[in-house]
Design brief:
Two copies of one chain form a homodimer. By secondary structure, chain A is of the alpha/beta class. Chain A has two domains: about 140 residues, 3-Layer(aba) Sandwich (Rossmann fold); about 80 residues, Putative phosphatase, domain 2 (DNA polymerase, domain 1, Orthogonal Bundle). The first copy, chain A, has a six-stranded parallel β-sheet, with helices on both faces. Chain A is globular. Chains A and B meet through helix 7 and strand 3 of A and helix 7 and strand 3 of B.
């Protein structure tokens, strides 16, 4: 079957959320005269995302966009650290996730891949987050698709199958590109093609992210240029 | 309230569906050695869209994407003209709506407007149609939103309000840009800003499309450059 479209995981795969969020938190601390271990705060913030999302996936919470899950966790962490700021300041800080910087190869690699394939996001981030991020960072998506549109967070199969359906392609004509084996396994189980892209610095230096087994996915790439090379783009 | 985002009607407002569909039908006729009044065929094809959509809006049909409504009408028209072609050829011809050419000012005007505002589609066309069209024509959308995402065709208020909600802006921070007064009236009733763009050739030379009353909408523009001038973009 011909490959027609590429769907990209975003946090960690396209953008370096860690460095970006730490920089935003550090600037926030400086503005408010607060010192803290902002790298650990960023990890704790991100770590709140999976359990909150799983409550939505299990039906314990109604559909809740990622901005609101992020905000809930942020308020918990600020309260825990006895940091008091206005609601507007919390919103502004929460939008740090709209202002993440791409990995150095992301924009140029996507421009290459876009010449040959339809390229879309397939992220748990909400549409406004992904759109604001793309506009700021120059990510040249053909369209912006999100768990929010399918009302199912990844790794629910409805997210992968919904992406193929709305693009009007067969699952096998769509490939998920991600730095996370669990995401790719779920995409493979839904019938999509799979490309693992190594992002060894996602969690900072010296912390090795989960790696796939050899041959587990269709493609293994060091970055988006390497992926474009393998796909003839 | 600050204007933050512009949502564009597409068929007739951004692209010249009439000339494009007539050209596709003419080429189809030439391939199959069929002569017909293709301009009238195009009008009849387009004319089938509102009643079919209204059956979905009224709940007589379940949600059906525009590609499938277009295809149903096309099959009726081909049958009525005793034209017999394969299912693949019908699909290929039906995708004429994915290959519409922009008005001469559309791409450059959108590039200007995009510098200052978030720009999105808000069309009854389905996501794959709009995405394929944008990729072919170079329409630089920040994201691709559609009635398909909100499961409500315009002029249902849910389409306009759903667009504001998913962009995380207030209705008054969003402006609909359209060449059709009825679309703009529904957007205004939902609380959006409104910009009428005159597209006098939408239905071909010598057929004047419906015009708005003086002062009925927030802005009145001759084309997208004139709109950009008025919005300071």
């Amino acid at each position: 079957m011909t490959l027609r479209a590429l769907a990209f995981d975003v946090f960690g795969t396209v953008v370096d959320w860690g460095s970006s969020v730490i920089a935003e938190l550090t600037a926030f601390g400086r503005r408010h005269g607060i010192s803290a271990d902002w790298a650990r705060f960023a990890d704790d913030w991100r770590a709140g995302y999976v359990p909150a999302m799983n409550r939505v996936r299990a039906g314990e919470l109604p559909w809740t966009r990622l901005d609101d899950l992020h905000r809930g966790r942020l308020v918990e962490l600020l309260d825990g650290a006895a940091i008091t700021v206005s609601d507007n300041e919390i919103d502004e800080l929460n939008h740090a996730w709209h202002r993440l910087d791409p990995w150095p190869d992301s924009v140029a690699g996507l421009q290459r891949l876009k010449q040959r394939f339809l390229i879309t996001t397939l992220s748990n981030g909400n549409v406004s987050l992904l759109t604001n991020m793309a506009k700021r960072a120059g990510l040249p998506w053909d369209c912006v698709l999100s768990a929010e549109i399918f009302r199912h967070y990844k790794p629910d199969p409805q997210a992968y199958l919904g992406c193929a359906d709305i693009l009007d392609v067969a699952p096998a004509e769509l490939m998920l590109v991600a730095a996370h084996p669990a995401d790719l396994r779920a995409a493979r189980d839904a019938g999509l093609g799979t490309a693992f892209v190594a992002r060894p610095l996602e969690w900072g230096p010296g912390r090795t992210p989960p790696q796939p087994a050899p041959g587990e996915f269709d493609l293994f790439a060091d970055d988006f240029h390497h992926l474009a090379d393998q796909l003839g783009a």
